[in-house]
Amino acid sequence: MKTARTHSLAQAAAALTPALGLMPAGAATVNNTYIQNSATEIRGQLGGYARPTVYVNQRACGEPSPSAFACGPYTISVGTSFLQGQENSYGNYVAKFIIAHEWGHSIQFTRGINKRAPLQELQADCVGGIFAKYAQTTLRYPSFIESAVRSARAAADYSTHGTPSQRDYYSRYGYANGLSACLNNI
């Protein structure tokens, strides 16, 4: 009986965990279409500040393996395997946040913003946060800021990308305060 009850409790916990937003409940498939549709959505909000082309699985920035990288005002390079791994690990729409983060770097290139580490990355996190808010309020996506923050925290390196708490703070700061706050206060 104890084994059956333990098993039943484990099943109940497994069923509730995704509903509480603690882990992904069936990540979206991240492919070229998903990425380009995400870029179109981001362009709808941020296209007046930068209009990069998003290259998929092409190592367009000369990076050693496809992940997520902006290398100028007009180029963002992403890999489907990397973004799919982020969605699988942290939840749906995390890839959109990551692409928006890279879009933030394109805005920095366009505007000649060059901050010392880790502020350059944290400002891009802030831009990711503003897109997460736009996706929720304008595009009517379910909120994914918690998943996005978990992904950003996991990418912290205590150096160029900041600490987990910094990445958390600036992602939420953008979500709460908008683009002008990200560009003028960081």
Q: What would you say this structure looks like, in words?
A:
It is a single chain. The chain is mainly α and 186 residues long. The chain contains eight helices and three strands, in the order H-H-E-E-E-H-H-H-H-H-H. The protein has helices at 2-19, 32-46, 80-90, 94-111, 119-137, 145-154, 164-177, 179-185; strands at residues 53-56, 68-72, 75-78. The chain has a three-stranded mixed β-sheet. Helix 4 crosses helix 5. The protein is globular and about 35 Å long. The protein starts with a helix and ends with a helix.
Task: Please name the defining characteristics of this protein.
mainly alpha, 8 helices, single chain, globular
Mean pLDDT reading: 89
Low-confidence stretches: 1-24
Straight-line distance between termini: 58 Å
Strand content: 5-15%
Helix content: 55-70%
Element order: H for helix, E for strand? HHEEEHHHHHH
For the report, how would you describe the main beta sheet?
A: 3 strands, mixed
* Class computed from helices, strands and strand pairing: mainly alpha
Work out the radius of gyration.
17 Å
